[in-house]
Amino acid sequence: MTLLWPLLFRMLLQSQMLKPMCFQCISAFSIFIYLWEAFGKPFPLAAEIPKELPSMEGCFTFEIMNFSAHQYEFAKTAAGDLYNTCRLTEGTYLDLLANELMNGSKRQWTMNRHKNSNSPDRYLEWLDKQAPHYRKVRRAKLPQGYEERVEAMGQGMVVGDWAPQQGILGHLTTGGFMSHCGWNSCMESITMGVPIAAWPMHSDQPRNCLLVTQILKVGLVVTEWEHREELVTSSTIEKALRRLMTSKEGNDIRKNAVELGNAIRRSMDDGGLLAWSSILSLLVLPDRFISRNEVYNVLS
Question: Residue 87 and residue 267: Cα distance in Å, rounded?
């Protein structure tokens, strides 16, 4: 794949077909819901989508809304949209976005940048020493010296800087992930087969939370979006984690997460980031189709 992309890029230049694409960093589900609402809810939603969607109130600041509005003019020139997702996760919503009413003649493509990590980071070294699905419940506040005491007791780690999230999620001892439901984190957790304790904060996160918990059923909610202004107590977090890690509900969620993660990883075994069929589909643009012979001529 490393050598393939420059060759394909050269081929597109030679064919005078290089056109801009718009990379969508949030879920296809969230984008579809935003557009569906913006167009006046032109058709009924599928049965699996709850009728009561999370409110947009409090999701975006004025600055973000203004920035997004400015980007819209540039996005209109794109030949299509590239999503950080896969059809196993969001195929229904990618198909809906391909509807001419929703997106004109734009094409929809997907990619998933999953990569196994063999990093020797100290976080992973600590996990290597734990039993699979380590579930001991810990009660602790964050007073001065808390981080040092936690590490001294072997109960966990408090990390204030960057951590290799994907490597941690892919570790056998990781049995759950409490996440704000940013889409990149959701995709990493789903791809690794790790169930999510969802605690959305803003932006697209409340709707990603809905997708994760009510549609894909690979997570549960820590605190509902409607209660976002309320103080979240330690007992609320404990209750959610106990549900996820020790209840029948949690076991069903974990099973769903493992099955979906396995399916996603299998789908990428042959093609890395994009299988050959997906690469060739990138070459189908509205005004012309690049034939296989043209691909082979450049590769040779």
Answer: 10
Pairing state between β 288-289 and 284-285: antiparallel
The DSSP result for 3-39, as a single string, is THHHHHHHHHHHTT----EEEE-S-HHHHHHHHHHHT
DSSP state of 225: G
Q: Helices 248-267 and 183-191 meet at what angle, rounded to 10? A: 90
| pLDDT tens string 3-29 | 555 665 565 555 545 567 788 888 999
- Tell me the pLDDT tens digit for each residue of 230-244: 888 989 999 999 999
The helix or strand, by DSSP H or E, that contains position 242, with its residue range, turns out to be helix 234-246
Burial class from Cβ neighbours inside 10 Å (0-12, 13-18, 19+) for residue 157 reads: middle
Contact in structure between 197 and 178 (CB atoms under 8 Å): yes
Distance CA 265, CA 286 (A): 31
Distance, CA of 170 to CA of 196 (rounded, Å): 13
Q: Which amino acid is at 86?
A: C
> Hey, is 144 helix, strand or coil?
coil
Whether the CB-CB separation of 192 and 184 falls below 8 Å is answered with no
- Sign, CA dihedral 198-193-116-113, equals negative
- Burial pattern 183-209, b for ≥16 Cβ within 10 A else e, equals bebbbbbbbbbbbbbbbbeebbbbbbb
Q: What distances in angstroms separate CA 248 from CA 138, 231, 262, one per listed residue?
A: 21, 28, 21
* Amino acid, res. 67: F
Nearest partner of 212 among 228, 191, 230, judged by Cα: 191
pTM of the predicted structure, to 2 decimals? 0.71
What gap in Å lies between CA 97 and CA 91, rounded to an integer?
A: 10
Confidence class for position 95, pLDDT limits 50, 70, 90: confident
Q: For the segment 134-181, what is each residue's pLDDT rounded down to a tens digit?
A: 445 444 456 788 778 878 887 777 776 677 888 888 888 889 999 999
